[in-house]
Each structure stands twice: as C-alpha cells, then as structure tokens.
Description:
Blueprint: E1 2-6, E2 14-17, E3 27-36, H1 39-45, E4 59-60, E5 64-72, E6 84-88, E7 102-106, E8 111-113, H2 120-123, H3 127-140, E9 147-151, H4 156-167, E10 171-175, H5 180-187, E11 192-194, H6 199-206, E12 211-216, H7 221-225, E13 228-236, H8 245-248, E14 251-254, H9 261-272, E15 280-285, H10 289-298, E16 303-307
Parallel strand pairs: 9-10, 9-12, 10-11, 12-13, 13-14, 15-16
Antiparallel strand pairs: 1-2, 1-4, 3-5, 3-7, 3-16, 5-6, 6-8
Helix pairs in contact: 3-4
Amino acid sequence: MRAVAFNEFxxxxxxxxxxxxEPGPGEVLVQVRASSVNGFDLGVIGGYLKGVxxxxxxxxxGKDFAGVVSAVGxxxxxxxxxxxxxxxxxxxxxxxxxxxxxVAVGAEYGIARIPEGLDHARAGALGLxxxxxxxxxxxxxxxxxxxxxxSGATGGVGAYAIQLAAxxxxxxxxxxxxxxEAEFVTGLGAAHAVDHTELVTRVxxxxxxxxxxxxxxxxxxxxxxxxxxxxxxxxxxLHHTPDGLAEHDVxxxxxxxxxxxxxxxxxxxxxxxxxxxxxxAQSYRLAQATQAIADFQAGTLGKLGVTI
Length: 308
C-alpha cells in the first residue's frame, strides 16, 4: 500500500510502499479515503513525542481517518465489513497512521460509524480537532449570554470551538488578524475578532470585568488566563495551568482529546444535520501530503485535508 512515512528520527516523511496491516483481535482494517493534518502530526514528525510514545518505524503520519471497513479481527461485532467509519488512530505506539491506504484500529475506541449526510472528506477532518474542541467547550460549559475568549481560533480546533460555544448562546471573542482571519472567525459565529498583538486592550474594551471563560489553543497562556473574570473557567489543550487559581477562584482544565465513540457520533451527527461546519480549507492528494504538512506549518485557516 502507499503511505506517507518516515524511517528514523530526523527524516522527512515521504510516500512509500508498505505492507497492508492485518487487524488483530478486537481491531478492524479500514480502507482509508480521507485524513487531515493536525498539530499532533508535527510532534510525531519532529520526534518531540519520543519518551511519551514508542516509535515503531517506519512511522506513518496521520491521526485522523475516514473510510470503509475492509476486514475485521477476532471478536469484533460493533462494525462490519463495508461500514463507513471515521475516527482517530489511538494505537498505543506510533507506527500506523491515517496517511495511508489502509490502517488497523481498535473497534471499540476512537472509531464511529459515519451517519448518512456526511462524506469521507469532511469526516476525515473531524475526529481529533472536533473532539478536542468539544472537550474544551464542555470543560468550561458556557451558558447563554456568557463571554468566551478563544485564543488560537483560526486553527482547526479553534474553528470548531467557535461554533460549539456560539451554539450554546455564548458571546465568542476570537483571536484573528484583520482581514481574512477576522472574516473567517466571524463567519463561524464569533461576535468579535481581536488581533492577538493587542489582545489585552481589545478584550478589556469588550469585557472590562473579564471574560467568563477562556479556551487556550495557542498563544501565551498566562495572558489569556489573566483576562478571566473572578470565578472564571479556563481550558487549555497546551496544558497550561494559570497562576493564582485559588485567589481568583478560577477553574482550570487541561484538555486531552477523548475520541470515544459517543463523542465522535455526536460531532458527526451535528455535521450531518448542518449544525456544525467542517472548516475544510483545502484538500491534497496523498502524493501531496508532504506539501499539506508544510502548508499547515506555515499557518492556515481551518483544516487541511488529505484524500487517499
């Protein structure tokens, strides 16, 4: 099969021919139709996760996947051959990934059926970023009328979080530079777009007493947390812990995406029903995946997809 992989630390990923994996007990083999680039992939490629995960070379890039079940391992009853599925590759080691024609994944976690009305391309850009966004929004639990600051709003996680927070009736303040970025975040439901270079001044002008909740996906965590009102809620996918939690009665949550089947299905159902938009900015063929990774590193609005 074709896959985008690298053979050692420091090596650049490239398209290679690798054996088709076989599903073990409790696993399914998915013929991948689509995936997308995530920040996690950059950590894998750069070797930054050495010591956190075991690397089994050659390591195939890609955390997301969407496709069709082509085989099932022993004991699998939750899905069947021919089912359309999507999710997040949650293997205990780094080796297999979604930038490949096939991937073997667990049948009980990190996978869900694709509902009618959702195509593979959008499903392949939903799993990891959508789950991280939903978990972060759930952690701060905004109510209607509350103000939520989203730092790192133009990326995939931020783009989903804007929509999820706005759907709960929150007033969303999203970091975005003037122009295309500001149009992007307001088009997703943000009430205000603020330049990150003027973050404190701009946010204080909107919420003089501070925001009720803040989501930290990028930028300086201390600055973002400093804009919370007394008793505010803070969630960070970068695992920043604000100072003075007790003094300011701030609740902080470190978010690690939990792509359980219920969460994945909840997201997919919202997309299929038109309640949630997949911010797919551009799609690349598998042979162009290295360019997708480079473009992601350079900065983009929303998600970059890879079609297989």
